[in-house]
């Protein structure tokens, strides 16, 4: 670590001579130790998944959720320091509800991500605070239907001025990843945490930008990727937690919900099967290599 | 512009800038009270106290509901009221009555949690007075009656005006039919205008001495009072809710009244 | 043009007379709603075997003007409660947003929204009571329909004063005068609600709305009905009052210019 002993890493809001903020980089290191979290964006929805490492056998299975609902149509999963993640989610909820109180409509995913990005960035500016030790993946669905204003009572003019415009296309899936620096981008597939490298490699194989993957398959892929990413860093036991947001016609009707138990278990079984298949192949390959060596 | 600058800058110009107005102060037309009618009544005996109330709730000439209780257990379990040893009746503005009941209930519970013993009826009575008086300038528009057993196990009954003036009494009627029931109670419970036959002539005639009545008699007086009030007062009727507090606990009895 | 930017763009005093600044009150007492503006009329509801049916027409009036004719006054909360609003429409929208924010907050947890209709009614009645105590009332009379914690049908009312009451059938506004007598005749209060079928209840509400349409000048023949059962909420909006008969109108004499 080039930073150690230089003094440039002791305070937030201080650049090193080569233009780095070491506190932010250390925060990123905290994220790298967290359980893998991923998000997949497809045409008909968004899936969030997280590898929840079991830190104690005394913890109740299925409890202590890591994916949070922020508004009806938004979910957030974080990797890194769990308490920082909780505070981050709390801020996201405040932003979503304040948006509603001002605009009387749900917050667009892009706007929420923008505000959260600004919030996180502010924690890199002052010596009195430290940056967030989390990278957050924000997933949601902006309603494709023309939404009523919250509390709206009528349906507006049926025709003429102020009437409805036919065939207007709005809404859709949204997936953003916000890093400790405040940097955020929109993604087709996002991964963070310990197994992010393996996860990213798997996500790239999915060719998400082509829009061929559907939501249910994305759930299965997400489960598999978490298992693959875990395999890489093989350590403690873990629990898979997943949530999704679909179109208004889809299974969650535009809401952010936990993936139903049945589908979750099915996805986990498929993930384990795929992994075992891989292992066999690898072992075969190793065996072959060994034979070749002997020769 | 011929008019430009012709007008001298008078105080009339000000428009959107702060300035005092002579606008008359608007009259408040919102009245925060209503009368939900009904009547309540309490009588004590040597080792019991009874609180009763009809169950009709009215708004003007409308009957809102035929079953809206006015007598409550105070300081008991949340839903059932089990374990309570104090009862309260409220009549007048039902929303204030509900709020008052909930506040007193909370106070009695807190007392028990903090002191590790149930609140005495006497202490509760004083506390209720304080609660009412705290809202002296925006009162709970209710006539409250509190009942329980005192330190000696005798029936205790406290009646209140809306701003907390209170008194321990043998019996009390409150609510819309109070003026009908109270004279009946004076005569039947406190034996007013009852004399011992042959005890004398004119002023020498000796009054009948009041003494605690047995429970059966009191219950009958309560029923009679209400059946009579129902006949003469349009806001009273539908059902009679009776709560009897004794050493054994609180007994609640419901009997129908005329629904006309 | 003169030196006083605050008068630029305003009607000229020399032409229009000086502006009455009492419309621009910047000081003086803080005022709250003293009367409702855009209002909805009756809400009616009845319990039946296994649920509750509730209905309200689609009109929002501005005084005697039929201002909005597609207003949905039945609001759904969670998956088993409906609130029917009478009174001020803007206050209804405020409460609707309040309920929306509660529903969102409830759904932060994995178990979802566990508040039942009874909880909702308790909450809303306290909101009303608080606001009336601040002399800043929410000008509504509401009915809350759904289930209680024991999964029994629940129906209760709350108004701008915080007054609450419950009965097997309830109506607000004009409905209290016109619909309640019909409902009480169809479903006498002593008959258990288990004897009332869903179809009977819904038909009764439609009949009541028809009577209200004939006799309440601030009503509409388009309405919404919600039926709440353990299977969920079935809402039918944009319903039309069928089989109207105005034959009786011919026999009405003695109004207006017509003398005989």
Essential attributes:
heterotrimer, B: 260 residues, alpha+beta, Glutamine Phosphoribosylpyrophosphate, subunit 1, domain 1, 4 helices, globular, C: 260 residues, 8-stranded antiparallel sheet, 13 strands
Topology:
The complex is a heterotrimer of chains A (295), B (260) and C (260).
Chain A: H1 22-32, E1 37-42, E2 45-53, E3 67-71, E4 74-80, H2 82-103, H3 109-122, E5 134-142, E6 172-178, E7 184-186, E8 189-192, H4 196-205, H5 215-232, E9 238-246, E10 256-258, H6 261-294
Antiparallel strand pairs in A: 1-2, 1-8, 2-9, 3-4, 4-5, 5-6, 6-7, 9-10
Helix pairs in contact in A: 2-3, 4-5, 5-6
Chain B: E1 39-44, E2 48-54, E3 57-59, E4 62-65, E5 71-74, E6 86-92, H1 94-115, H2 121-134, E7 142-149, E8 155-160, E9 166-168, E10 171-175, H3 178-188, H4 215-232, E11 239-246, E12 249-256
Antiparallel strand pairs in B: 1-2, 1-10, 2-11, 3-4, 5-6, 6-7, 7-8, 8-9, 11-12
Helix pairs in contact in B: 1-2, 3-4
Chain C: H1 13-16, E1 38-40, E2 43-48, E3 51-57, E4 60-62, E5 65-68, E6 74-77, E7 81-88, H2 89-106, H3 117-133, E8 140-147, E9 153-159, E10 164-166, E11 169-171, H4 174-186, H5 198-215, E12 222-229, E13 232-240, H6 247-250
Helix pairs in contact in C: 4-5
């Amino acid at each position: 670590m080039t930073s150690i002993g230089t003094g440039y890493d002791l305070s937030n809001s201080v650049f090193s001579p080569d233009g780095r903020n070491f506190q932010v980089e250390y925060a990123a290191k905290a994220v790298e130790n967290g359980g893998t979290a991923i998000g997949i964006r497809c045409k008909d929805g968004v899936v969030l998944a997280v590898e929840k490492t079991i830190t104690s056998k005394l913890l109740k299975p299925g409890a202590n959720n890591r994916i949070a609902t922020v508004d009806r149509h938004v979910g957030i999963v974080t990797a890194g320091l769990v308490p920082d993640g909780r505070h981050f989610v709390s801020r996201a909820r405040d932003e979503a509800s304040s948006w509603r109180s001002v605009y009387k409509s749900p917050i667009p995913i892009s706007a929420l991500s923008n505000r959260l990005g600004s919030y996180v960035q502010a924690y890199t500016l002052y010596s009195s605070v430290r940056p967030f030790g989390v990278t957050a993946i924000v997933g949601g669905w902006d309603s494709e239907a023309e939404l009523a204003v919250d509390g709206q009572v009528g349906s507006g003019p049926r025709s003429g001025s102020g009437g409805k415009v036919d065939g207007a296309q709005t809404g859709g899936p949204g997936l953003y990843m916000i890093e400790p620096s405040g940097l955020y981008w929109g993604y087709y597939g996002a991964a963070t945490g310990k197994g992010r490298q393996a996860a990213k490699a798997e996500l790239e194989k999915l060719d998400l930008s082509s829009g061929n993957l559907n939501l249910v398959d994305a759930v299965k892929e997400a489960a598999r990727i978490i298992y693959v990413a875990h395999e890489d860093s093989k350590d403690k036991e873990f629990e898979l937690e997943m949530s999704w947001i679909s179109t208004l016609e889809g299974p969650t009707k535009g809401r952010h919900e936990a993936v139903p138990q049945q589908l979750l278990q099915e996805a986990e079984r498929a993930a384990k099967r795929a992994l075992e298949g891989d292992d066999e192949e690898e072992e075969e390959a190793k065996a072959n290599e060994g034979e070749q060596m002997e020769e | 512009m011929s008019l430009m600058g012709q007008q001298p800058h008078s105080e009339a110009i000000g428009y959107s800038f702060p300035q005092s107005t002579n606008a008359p102060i608007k009259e408040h037309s919102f009245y925060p009270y209503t009368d939900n009618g009904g009547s309540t009544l309490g009588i004590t005996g040597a080792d019991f106290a009874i609180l009763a109330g009809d169950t009709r709730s009215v708004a003007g000439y409308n009957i809102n509901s035929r079953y809206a209780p006015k007598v409550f257990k105070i300081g008991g379990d949340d839903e059932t009221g089990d374990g309570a040893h104090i009862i309260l009746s409220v009549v007048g503005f039902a929303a204030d009555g509900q709020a008052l009941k909930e506040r007193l209930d909370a106070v009695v519970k807190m007392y028990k949690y903090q002191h590790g013993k149930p609140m005495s009826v006497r202490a509760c009575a004083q506390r209720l007075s304080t609660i009412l008086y705290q809202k002296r300038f925006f009162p709970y528009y209710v006539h409250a009656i509190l009942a329980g057993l005192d330190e000696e196990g005798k029936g205790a009954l406290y009646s209140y005006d809306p701003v907390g003036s209170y008194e321990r009494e043998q019996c009390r009627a409150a609510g819309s039919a109070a003026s009908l029931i109270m004279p009946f109670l004076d005569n039947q419970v406190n034996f007013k205008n009852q004399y011992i036959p042959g005890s004398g002539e004119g002023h020498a005639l000796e009054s009948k001495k009041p003494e605690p009545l047995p429970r059966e008699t009191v219950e009958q007086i309560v029923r009679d009072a209400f059946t009579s009030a129902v006949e003469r007062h349009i806001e009273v009727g539908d059902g009679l809710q009776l709560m009897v507090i004794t050493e054994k606990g609180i007994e609640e009895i419901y009997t129908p009244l005329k629904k006309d | 043009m003169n030196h006083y930017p605050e008068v630029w763009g305003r009607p000229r005093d020399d032409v229009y007379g000086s502006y009455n600044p009492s419309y621009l009150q910047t000081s003086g007492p803080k005022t709250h709603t003293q009367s409702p503006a855009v209002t909805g009329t009756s809400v009616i509801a009845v319990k039946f075997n296994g649920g509750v049916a509730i209905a309200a027409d689609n009109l929002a009036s501005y005084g005697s003007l039929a201002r909005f004719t597609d207003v949905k006054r039945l609001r759904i909360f969670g998956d088993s409660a409906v609130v029917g609003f009478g009174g001020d429409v803007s206050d209804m929208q405020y409460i609707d947003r309040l309920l929306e924010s509660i529903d969102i907050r409830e759904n932060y947890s994995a178990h979802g929204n566990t508040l039942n209709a009874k909880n909702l009614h308790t909450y809303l009645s306290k909101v009303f009571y608080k606001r009336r105590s601040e002399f800043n009332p929410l000008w509504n009379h509401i009915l809350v329909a759904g289930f209680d914690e024991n999964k029994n049908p629940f129906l209760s009312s709350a108004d701008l004063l915080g007054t609450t009451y419950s009965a097997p059938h309830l109506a607000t506004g004009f409905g209290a005068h016109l619909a309640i007598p019909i409902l009480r005749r169809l479903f006498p209060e002593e008959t258990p609600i288990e004897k009332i079928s869903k179809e009977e209840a819904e038909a009764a509400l439609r009949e009541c709305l028809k009577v209200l349409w004939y006799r309440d000048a601030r009503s509409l023949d388009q309405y919404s009905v919600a039926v709440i059962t353990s299977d969920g909420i079935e809402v039918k909006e944009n319903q039309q009052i069928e089989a109207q008969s105005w034959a009786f109108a011919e026999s009405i004499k003695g109004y207006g210019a017509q003398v005989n």
